[in-house]
Design brief:
Elements lengths: L2 H9 L3 E12 L2 E12 L3 E6 L5 H8 L7 E6 L2 E2 L5 H9 L1 E4 L11 H12 L4 H14 L16 H12 L6 E5 L7 H18 L2 E5 L3 H7 L2 E6 L2 E6 L1 H5 L4 H8 L1 H8 L2
Parallel strand pairs: 3-8, 3-9, 6-7, 7-8
Antiparallel strand pairs: 1-2, 1-4, 4-5, 9-10
Bound molecules: adenosine-5'-diphosphate and magnesium ion.
Amino acid sequence: MSADQQTAVETGVETVVEVRKLLNTIDSVVLHRDLDFEVRAGEVMTLVGGSGSGKTQLVRVILGLKQPSAGIVRVFGVSWNDPNYRRVRAARERMGMLFQNGALYSAFTVYQNVAFPLRERGGLDEDAIRAIVFAKLAQVELEPAHADLLPANLSGGMVKRVSLARALALSPELLILDEPTAGLDPDRSDAFVRLIKRMRSEYQFAVLMVTHDLDTLHDLSDRVSVLADQHIIACGTIEEVRKVPHRFIENFFGGERGRRAFTSA
Ligand SMILES: Nc1ncnc2c1ncn2[C@@H]1O[C@H](COP(=O)(O)OP(=O)(O)O)[C@@H](O)[C@H]1O
Ligand SMILES: [Mg+2]
């Protein structure tokens, strides 16, 4: 047992995402250096940072879509380069991802999109798949009649909800959201945040969310991590993070929008 696992056992807190001393480069440009980051079971961890600071690239590393140059990346205790492919697959099936802009399969109907991860995992007949797909669509407040539509015929808010239904199809213990409310108007954005809150109170999954929207951050976060200068410069509750002296934090939380988001509660 490693020192980190021992700590998790002692404190009774399970770490679902663990990144230690990450070094990550693209075309020999260093994006992340000496970066530590974690998400604990059941919490909403929000990742903030300037545009181009490497938030999406960090998510790609955590998802196993990008191989880091050095460091430890474990999801549910499993490293993506674990030679045991069953373990890797099992860990992968415990997380759901909602990509920026939805990223639905454009040639697939709503039904086929939500069914996709269920078919990939296998072991379910069509009746069971159908039952899960329609249950997930109802949970994200879509009508059965929407099942046959193609993504091109959906509004922006509906694309997000179908993506959420697909991300939750396998009842994941970790949901990853990259800018989930980007491109939605304030009403739609509020509705989407309420939806995620309601789903979480039912299913208690952990969330790793990237957002620059202060209202979304304020409404959902248990803890916040701030990415700047290639690593996580602050991590804690909103109150703790706001006190950390750093230019990005002062601008982000201390501006007009920050004051509005944090004094209205
Ligand atoms: N495929 C790529 N090739 C080269 N550079 C990239 C690529 N994708 C992203 N980058 C660079 O990596 C940096 C971080 O990008 P990203 O993680 O998307 O930032 P953000 O924090 O806005 O999500 C940016 O400077 C971007 O230009
Ligand atoms: Mg991004």
